[in-house]
Amino acid sequence: MIGPFQARRDGHLQPLPHSAERVLAAAALIGPLSRSHAGALLWPDADTSRSSANLRAALSRMATADDRFLHLSGEVLSLPDTVTLDLDDTLLWINETIYGTANSAVSTPPASIGKQLLPGWDEEWLTDVRERLQLLQTQALEVAAERLIAAGRTAEALPYALSAVQAQPWSESANRLIIEIHARRGDPSNALRRYHRFRRALEEELGVQPGPDMLAAIRQLYPFGNIPPEPVGQPIPHSSAG
Predict the structure, then answer these.
(1) Which DSSP string do the residues of 199-237 spell out, in sequence order?
(2) What are the structural domain ranges in the chain?
């Protein structure tokens, strides 16, 4: 589900018609669905009879391709217990990180962290699911960075903070963490560049100013004077350490 849709059987790629992929994805990400709910969800612009016909056709194509990916029980569609999702590893890492104690070790995130859910799929029902996953990933990445900073492992914390900003560019807490890391590493120029770039983006795009926590982070470097103006130079890309 994370990245391009792929179904595998015994480690081998199992091609499915796109209509069958859509049904399978909905059952995987939403949970068990009644036929009427599935039809309305996947074909929101069709009337009931048309969406029901579309669903029947999709289920027929899935059964022809491989009938072991989806369980049908009367009017309910669901995933069999034998089907696993790549999303499971992502959610496991997120939960372990967010709900771990302050002294919990930061485990290496799965490769799926930071990747989009079913990119290229223009599905209205996916919007909330994608946003929820994005927010949870960002929160977990920030928590991981905060733990490493508290442990004095700022160099290890930086990739987590950068990934959090990549996932949520407008997250003030994620950008603040990068400033905090630069400040602790004695790197005022990159801290100042990050602060001014984020401040300028907030002002131009949203018409607001950074909050007190962001100001407190940059003032660690300038406790007895005003924050210097933005350094002159080439802007630092979002994916960099600046």
Answers:
(1) HHHIIIIIS----HHHHHHHHTS-TTSPPPPPPPSPPPP
(2) 8-78, 98-219
Structure tokens at 10: 């015994």
Note the pLDDT tens digit of each residue in 47-85.
Answer: 999 999 999 999 999 999 988 999 999 999 999 999 999
Lowest mean pLDDT among 129-133, 172-176, 209-213, 229-233: 229-233
Q: How confident is the model over 18-35, as a mean pLDDT?
A: 96
- For residue 74, what are its two tokens? 């009367």
Write the single-letter amino acid at 190.
N
Q: Are 211 and 217 in contact (CB under 8 A)?
A: no
As given in the structure block, the two tokens for residue 178 are 């990068």
Q: In one letter, which amino acid is 133?
A: L
Across the range 121-149, mean pLDDT stands at: 94
pTM for the model: 0.84
Classified by CATH at the fold level, domain 98-219 comes out as 1.25.40
- The answer to whether 125 and 26 are in contact (CB under 8 A) is yes
Q: What would you measure as the largest C-alpha separation in the chain, in angstroms? A: 73
Taking the C-alpha atoms of residue 129 and residue 31, their distance in angstroms, rounded to an integer, is: 12
Q: Closest Cα partner for 55 from 14, 26, 80?
A: 26
